[in-house]
Amino acid sequence: MLGPVILAASRSDKMRRFVSAAPGTKQVVARFIAGETVNDVVPIVQDLAARGLEVTLDVVGEDITTVEQSHAARDAYLELIGRLKELGLGARAEMSVKLSMFGQSLENGHELALANVRPVVAAAAEIGTTVTLDAEDHTTLDSMFAIHEELRKDFPQTGCVIQAYLFRTEDDARRLAANGSRVRIVKGAYKEPASVAIQDKPEIDKAYVRIMKILMEGEGYPMIGSHDPRLISVGQELARRAGRKLDEYEFQMLYGIRTEEQNRLAAEGHRMRVYTAYGTDWYGYFMRRLAEKPANLLFFVRSILTKG
Predict the structure, then answer these.
(1) Cα distances (angstroms) measured from residue 254 to each of 68, 89, 147
(2) How much is the pTM?
């Protein structure tokens, strides 16, 4: 029951100010956010790569309100790609982008977001890596999928994300699997109405398994975004049944969560990618991490009480 309340709070300026000022916030945010600048995150990417892990990097800050901010977001990713090129990390690190950060919700937002993300995708391709378009709330998805399709004409490795709790997702998965896309599946972390999304957690898990099966049996590259041991085990079995080799799919987990399991999967030969976020506008991302797992919220509350 707490999840929807926290997700609602993620859109509240009043809660943003309260959480930002709380004495224990910095400690907890550091668990999920790898830093505020490129210089902060580069050593973390190097460390993860040295441990046999791969990375997807997210510059947080989707709540923009101006065209100038959308251009700044584009430039932040281009700066990141430049640093990865200097350090020879292109083969180990890809980018994840939210199109809202590139102007999708502004006037003529679809065209603006496409114009902003294209040079990022092109720059990523030049250093041997790629970009995955993150899924946001259901009202943005038709635009996201259209941009994904357009980008794949020139950059077929461009990925996208689908969310198991949405009723539409099984159909989206079949389409994407048939056309050979790179697809990350997640449960979903936005507050969605019952008219478009499954509300019952066991039913979401069942949908997740059905969608994994579609992806594993398809022509694309599945990326299993989950920390759930049971779903990870099911994913391994579905890959085995589909005859996939270890480099024909991957697991993805968030930075700071289940680190030992990340290392274990990599040691077994699985491709294990760590979703690593950084930046100053961390609030929305942070609140969704709290909403996903009650233990994260308890950790946060304890930190506030011990620091207060």
Answers:
(1) 29, 19, 25
(2) 0.86
